[in-house]
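[recover] target loaded
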């Protein structure tokens, strides 16, 4: 089945606008749990005072704001997202931290309204894998990046290494509410193989990247906490769950509860996660 990429873009924009409030509500929790990812990405691009950086698909903005603290008052960060709602979340986040060197832009990563060779570095956390045409997005990142500048980004590894996400995805497919994902279709696991990362990055004109595995652990107070996380933050899955009848939703919930049982610790849950983080020039 061929994916209608324009329809996907439209749906994706609506989806991330809808879940932006959930990401804002859980921002501090998520930043704490996934801190090693941000630390790796920022460390590899090594922002210096006075430099200009671009944060692609910034979401709630934490990664770009960490860069903003490094480039200082004489530097600048362009915090970009294609969702106006997400960009607004990032702005509130930055304002709360008193950062005045951040420009918040609503930009489509596949077609950015930015000049060639205009930024010293680019960062992106969990964005490229969700884009309709990741090759175009990488090419745009290459276009706006000055010669010698670095790109660092993170995507999610294989489903079996990320049960926090694969459990819910498998349950919704099992109950017939979504078809199995098409190979290489946009989605959380679309760049879960190093070969795919190297293919896309090289095709955009970057050097062969350094790719490291970065582990995280998702911690939930109880199953209800995990269920709320999926229903409020899980992008397209959350939108599908919202359309289900009470009986359908409860059946899916029970399937997820059974599959999550191996990760129960006391009353809570501890679910492993694995990112593939890459840096290139």
């Amino acid at each position: 089945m061929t994916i209608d990429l324009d329809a996907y873009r439209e749906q994706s924009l609506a989806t991330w606008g809808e879940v932006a409030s959930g990401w804002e509500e859980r921002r501090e929790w998520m930043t704490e749990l996934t801190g090693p990812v941000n630390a790796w990405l920022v460390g590899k691009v090594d922002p210096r005072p006075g430099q200009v950086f671009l944060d692609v698909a910034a979401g709630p903005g934490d990664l770009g704001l960490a860069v903003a603290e490094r480039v200082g008052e004489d530097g600048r960060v362009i915090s970009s997202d294609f969702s106006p709602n997400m960009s607004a979340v990032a702005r509130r986040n930055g304002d709360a931290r008193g950062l005045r060197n951040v420009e918040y832009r609503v930009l489509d990563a596949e077609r950015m309204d930015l000049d060639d060779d205009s930024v010293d570095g680019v960062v992106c956390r969990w964005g490229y894998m969700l884009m309709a045409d990741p090759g175009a997005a990488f090419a745009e990142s290459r276009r706006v990046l000055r010669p010698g500048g670095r790109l660092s980004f993170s995507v999610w590894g294989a489903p079996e290494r990320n049960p926090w996400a694969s459990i819910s995805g498998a349950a919704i497919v099992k109950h017939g509410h979504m078809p199995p994902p098409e190979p290489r279709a946009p989605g959380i696991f679309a760049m879960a193989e190093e070969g795919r990362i190297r293919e896309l990055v090289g095709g955009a004109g970057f050097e062969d990247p350094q790719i490291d595995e970065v582990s995280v652990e998702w911690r939930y107070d109880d199953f209800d906490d995990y269920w709320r996380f999926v229903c409020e933050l899980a992008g397209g899955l959350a939108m599908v769950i919202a359309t289900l009848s009470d009986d359908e939703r409860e059946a899916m919930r029970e399937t997820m509860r059974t599959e999550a049982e191996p990760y129960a610790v006391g009353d809570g849950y501890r679910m492993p996660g694995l990112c593939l983080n890459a840096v290139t020039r």
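[recover] notes: The chain has one domain: 5-158+184-219+272-280.
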